[in-house]
Amino acid sequence: MKPQSQSQTDLADLRISYERGQLEDSSTSAEPHDLFAAWLEAALAEESIIEPYAMALSTVDTQSRPSSRIVLLRGYDARGFTFFTNYESRKGSELAANDRAAILFWWGALQRQIRIEGHVEKLAPAESDAYFGKRPRGHRLSAWASRQSTIVPDRATLDAEMAAADARFPGDDVPRPDYWGGYRLVASYFEFWQGRRSRVHDRLAFTRETAGWSIVRLSP
């Protein structure tokens, strides 16, 4: 192992004190989607947070090897949390083999995170069409130009594919490719984490039961 440079930051010495808020049992709704909505609105209002609707999506392959990437939340309601991608991408292939997944929101400025677990299902084609039609033209063209997660020889190849897509669809009517669309994660577990002083953080976990949601406090 190479010796540590004198100018290298010692990560073991870096820490902050979490004192922005608290999560009390008595103030928590029995419906986790309501608490999620309140926390997301707070994150949207925090100007220092870039893309507060970004979330880490974790999936597993057929050999149970996990992988994570950042995707954008594009809708949520009592049914679940929606995002969009290429169905033939790595995440799409993994979800086709195993529909269990997890998403994670981290809002450092608020010293909060939310973990959500559940199963993932494809959206109806009409729902995917409706969202695809809202995307900027360049974003729609890129869905045709990029075979997500496949190997390309160089950047010039991608640029050539974009030019080809642009020529193929010269107007604003760029249809959705059948290999691109949306998913919904149907939640069966939520965990809300609020940072607290001395690392004695608040953690409330919601698990879906037949009659509703059970709520427990977890030790930090």
Summarize the structure.
The chain is of the alpha+beta class. The protein is built from five helices and nine strands.
Structural features, described:
The protein is of the alpha+beta class and 220 residues long. The protein has a single domain (18-132, 178-217), classed as Pnp Oxidase, Chain A. It is built from five helices and nine strands. The protein has helices spanning 32-45, 90-97, 125-134, 137-145, 155-168, and strands at 54-60, 66-72, 75-77, 80-86, 100-107, 112-122, 180-194, 202-209, 212-217. Strands 1, 2, 3, 4, 5, 6, 7, 8 and 9 form a nine-stranded antiparallel beta sheet that branches. Strand 7 and strand 8 form a beta hairpin. The mean pLDDT is 94.
Layout: helices, strands, pairs:
Blueprint lengths: L31 H14 L8 E7 L5 E7 L2 E3 L2 E7 L3 H8 L2 E8 L4 E11 L2 H10 L2 H9 L9 H14 L11 E15 L7 E8 L2 E6 L3
Antiparallel strand pairs: 1-2, 1-5, 3-4, 4-7, 5-6, 6-7, 7-8, 8-9
